[in-house]
Amino acid sequence: MTGPQAGPAAVLCGLGAVLPPRAVQNEELCAELDTTDEWIRTRTGIRERRIADAGVSTEDLAVAAAARALVSAGSPDADAVVLATTTPDHLMPATAPSVAARLGLTGTAAFDVAAVCTGFVYALATAAGLITTGTARTVLVVGADRMSRLPDSGDRTTRPLFADGAGAVVLRSGTATEPGALGPMVLGSDGAHRDLLVVPHGGHMQMRGPDLFRHAVDRMSAVTRQAVQLAGWSLTEVDRIVPHQANARITAAVGRHLAIGADRRVQNIEHVGNTGAASIPLALAQASADSTLRPGHRVCLTAFGAGLTWGATTAVWPDLKPAAHPAHDTPRERT
């Protein structure tokens, strides 16, 4: 956990996101799995999810989202690229250097962060550290995942949940009092419960849903309280909470624990599914595009993922818009 620090602050100045064009409805999955549309909706809140073509890589999604974030920021340059992903294209090398190269950022520091669905918040904390120490003045932070690759194709519990996408933000050096400045970061982990959600080498995702649900609600509720308190706010002063889109029931339970109603909770899982590290920036882009999220809003970003990992931070939302609606002009298979 970190509190307010003297010196430069990391300030949000660009936002971009992409979703694959193919929308897979619940009915399509029901034709292959022993499940129903009602079963999926009541347990997850998902009606459809975006699935990338076989030839589209995590790198492709990351590049598309990152390019939009740079356009939104008004500059093609960044001093570092931090990519949060659970689905890198190779065990070695990391995906971030290839993303940087395709963006014309050859020679720029670039590396991956692996914290599963908390990855984007971990990446924000890492990028903020680069800025506050003076190592970088601008950092491109990307969350990109092809989570649909991980479940067994016949598993009705996990396959309907997970989907693909990417989102990105640009952080610049600024002051802690200006709109967009990231507040204190709260991060945590508990590896003793790593078996609650795991993908073994050479295998498919294994999930202990009820136990994972309980931990997700407890950890996200607690970490949100901590981040809001460190920002000097009360929960009643938070205009929007932007949680990792894991499951609509988890989001609702966290809201009940924190007394934050649906009108203050950003949610897009109904149409995008659980996109891992891409979840929060995708939600930010959607909410910014449709004005659910407006300049001046006090915002808390909060996440929980396998590991177990969790994290949260705050910001007063700045006056910026994503470069494009996340459902438009998305990457297709390269030929």
Task: Explain what the structure shows.
- There is one protein chain.
- This protein is an alpha/beta fold.
- It is built from 9 helices and 13 strands.
- The chain has helices spanning 26-30, 37-44, 58-73, 96-102, 119-132, 209-230, 248-258, 269-272, 279-289; strands at 9-18, 23-25, 48-50, 80-84, 109-113, 138-146, 164-174, 186-189, 197-198, 206-207, 240-243, 298-305, 309-316.
- The longest helix is centred in the middle third of the chain and has 22 residues, at 209-230.
- The mean pLDDT is 93.
In short:
By secondary structure, this protein is α/β, with parallel strands linked by helices. It has 9 helices and 13 strands.
Largest sheet: 5 strands, mixed
The low-confidence parts are: none
* Fraction in beta strands: 15-25%
Evaluate the radius of gyration: 18 Å
Helix content: 25-40%
| Discrete helix count | 9
Secondary-structure class: alpha/beta
Envelope shape: globular
**Spatial separation of the terminal alpha carbons:** 46 Å
Number of strands: 13
**Average residue-wise pLDDT:** 93
Query: What is the helix/strand order?
Result: EEHHEHEHEHEEEEEHEHHHEE
Identify the quaternary structure here. Answer: single chain
Strand numbers in spatial order across the main sheet: 1-7-6-4-5
